[in-house]
Specification:
The chain is α/β, with parallel strands linked by helices. The chain has a domain of 199 residues: 3-Layer(aba) Sandwich (Isopropylmalate Dehydrogenase). The chain contains 12 helices and 12 strands. The strands form 2 sheets. Strands 2-1-3-12-11-4-5-10-8-9 form a 10-stranded mixed beta sheet, with helices on both faces. A two-stranded antiparallel ribbon has the order 6-7. Helix 1 links the parallel strand 1 and strand 2. Helix 8 packs parallel to helix 9. The radius of gyration is 21 Å and the shape is globular. It binds 1,4-dihydronicotinamide adenine dinucleotide and magnesium ion. The site of magnesium ion (MG) has 3 residues, from helix 9.
Length: 358
């Protein structure tokens, strides 16, 4: 086998969409040996941890993984398994391409966007103080001492750190990505007028770092204005470079622009490791019924293939997805069809096998 890849089926619809993606990828000649590993609510039952150490070890060995969505138990005190995975492996860049796909009913045609999201800092860093705790009280007192900030006694607090080092590498990554993928512009979304020392620093550092890169044009836009412009005229944008929280939100917005969460793939990338996963979550409302659209997971698989240097196989999977969507016979209910998750996986795999090789 040419490549060893860790596969994490995950929770909810995760195992269903993962099985479909494996069908499609195994139909290529990339030769992937799958190493199964657990994460998520299921792993909490079987391994006693949302993100078992052996899963991290597996990815450290294979260096590349494909992952289904995992459920974050709410109010149990557990740190999100996704946040932990991104932090433990320092997967600082999320890449989420949203493009118009053939045969999918949408409001805007010709959309071809890539969200590049900083993945490790910002309000998602996990620095939080629960309302009414001794720590929250101490922090309130400290804030009062330091600068006279009065925070209400019944407030919960989440801290937003954004660093020069953290920003520099994501800006470098975005321009590098733009260059290799022939992208024309990189637009930074921010709210530097309000959050001067976090978003302000992101913006200042981005502008400085961008000056070292040629190729793509650098632009800046307030995140609220950017949201409005995306809703009206998404074709005007190319690469969107965003701090963590805005990146999370606009990723789903961009998914909506091209037909929904079932269609948009993603990658979490660091200097050493890469974990590919769709933008969507575990969708407990439709889990276990064969209703989930596996396209996002299959296209995440195509991104994995490209990362492994299997350009031809990656293109084959993308062309097969396009062909199945364009034909319109096999599609899941989110796209108005009545096919199952597995049927879409089989149809894409069959199309991959039909495409000429070499
Ligand atoms: P979600 O993305 O799971 O679902 C939102 C809506 O989109 C639901 O109506 C769902 O049925 C639909 N949907 C999602 N994926 C679909 C697909 N492939 N085909 C057809 N319909 C699809 O978001 P939600 O409900 O906010 O989160 C559910 C759980 O997933 C939570 O525990 C959350 O923490 C987790 N989550 C995990 C992620 C990951 O592992 N990367 C990412 C986002 C959420
Ligand atoms: Mg999200």
């Amino acid at each position: 086998m040419a490549h060893r890849v860790t596969v994490i089926p995950g929770d909810g619809i995760g195992p269903e969409v993962t099985a479909a993606a494996r069908l499609a990828l195994d139909a290529t000649d990339a030769g992937i040996e799958w190493i199964e590993a657990a994460a998520g609510a299921g792993a909490l039952d079987t391994h006693g941890a949302l993100l078992p150490e052996e899963t991290l070890d597996s990815i450290r060995q294979t260096r590349a993984a494909i992952k289904g969505p995992i459920t974050t138990p709410v109010g149990t005190g557990f740190r999100s398994g996704n946040v932990a995975l991104r932090q433990e492996l320092d997967l600082f860049a999320a890449v989420r391409p949203a493009r118009t796909l053939p045969g999918v009913p949408v409001r805007h045609r010709g959309v071809d966007l890539v969200v590049i999201r900083e993945n490790t800092e910002d309000l998602y860093r996990g620095i939080e103080f629960e309302r009414g705790t001794r720590e929250a009280g101490a922090l309130r007192a400290k804030l009062r001492d330091l600068a006279g900030f009065e925070v209400r006694e019944d407030a919960g607090i989440t801290v937003k750190p954004i660093s020069v080092a953290g920003t520099r590498r994501i800006v470098y990554f975005a321009f590098d990505y733009a260059q290799w993928n022939h992208r024309r512009t990189v637009t930074v979304g921010h709210k530097a007028n309000i959050m001067r020392y976090s978003d302000g620093l992101f913006l200042e550092t981005a502008a400085e770092e961008a000056a070292n890169h040629y190729g793509a044009e650098y632009r800046e836009m307030h995140i609220d204005h950017l949201s409005m412009r995306l809703a009206r005229e998404p074709q005007a944008f190319d690469v969107l470079l965003l701090p963590n929280l805005y990146g999370d939100i606009l990723s789903d917005l961009c998914a909506g622009l091209v037909g929904g969460l079932g269609l948009v793939p993603g990658a979490n990338i660091g200097w050493e490791y890469a974990v590919f996963e769709p933008v969507h979550g575990s969708a407990p409302d439709i889990a276990g019924k064969g209703l989930a659209n596996p396209t996002a997971m299959i296209l995440s698989g195509a991104m994995l293939l490209r990362h492994l240097g299997e350009q031809r196989a990656a293109r084959a999977v993308e062309e097969a997805v396009d062909a199945v969507l364009a034909a319109g016979r096999v599609r899941t209910p989110d796209l108005g069809g009545d096919s199952t998750t597995a049927q879409v996986g089989e149809a894409v795999a069959a199309e991959v096998r039909r495409l000429p090789r070499g």
